[in-house]
Amino acid sequence: MLPPTRRDVVLHFSRPEVGQLLLQRLRAALGDSGRFFVGALEQVPPDAVVVADDRALSLARCQELADTGHVPVVLAAFPSDADEAAYRRAGAHRYLGMMVDIAPLVAVLGALI
Predict the structure, then answer these.
(1) Structural domains of the chain sorted by starting position, each given as residue range(s) with its CATH number in brackets
(2) Distance between CA 36 and CA 49 in Å, rounded?
(3) How far apart are CA 74 and CA 105, in angstroms?
(4) 52 FRET partner, CA 20 to 30 A, in 4, 22, 34, 93?
(5) DSSP 55
(6) pTM of the model
(7) Long-range contacts of 52-61 (CB under 8 A, 24+ apart)
(8) Beta bridge partners of 95
(9) Distance CA 86, CA 91 (A)
(10) What is the rounded distance in angstroms from the CA atom of residue 75 to the CA atom of residue 83?
(11) Per-residue model confidence as pLDDT tens for the chain (113 residues)
């Protein structure tokens, strides 16, 4: 039996179909170990992990989420060291390249939820 979920995971992407696809893949990979939602940032439950692409999550919004106890995880289509540093300063827990292989994201979320 899996331990109870500690955090909800909200997926927020500039292209909603990407969020829906990732939702299916995360549920397949992590099963019942997490509660996953595709949603707007205004609807994020307290203490949730927020997985968002860098087009949908500005640095200011990342900072706001981190300051209010959320855990931002940023996926970047074109990752760069400079952008990673900026997002980390803004409170991102992780900054990952967006890839077909979601194993790095599954590892991060598995440790958080």
Answers:
(1) 14-99 (3.40.50.2300)
(2) 9
(3) 10
(4) 4
(5) T
(6) 0.85
(7) 52/11, 52/12, 52/13, 53/13, 53/14, 53/15, 53/18, 53/77, 53/98, 54/83, 54/87, 55/13, 55/14, 56/12, 56/13, 56/14, 57/12, 59/86, 59/87, 59/90, 60/90
(8) 74
(9) 9
(10) 11
(11) 344 446 899 999 999 999 999 999 998 888 877 789 898 888 888 889 999 999 999 999 999 999 999 999 999 999 999 999 999 999 999 999 988 777 888 788 888 87
| 12/30 Cα distance (integer angstroms) | 18
DSSP state for residue 31 in the 8-state scheme: G
Give the CA-trace dihedral at 86, 92, 93, 97, to 10 degrees.
-70
Token digits of residue 86: 């900026």
Asked whether the beta carbons of 73 and 97 are under 8 A apart, the reply is no
Report yes or no: 94 and 104 within 8 Å, Cβ to Cβ. Answer: no
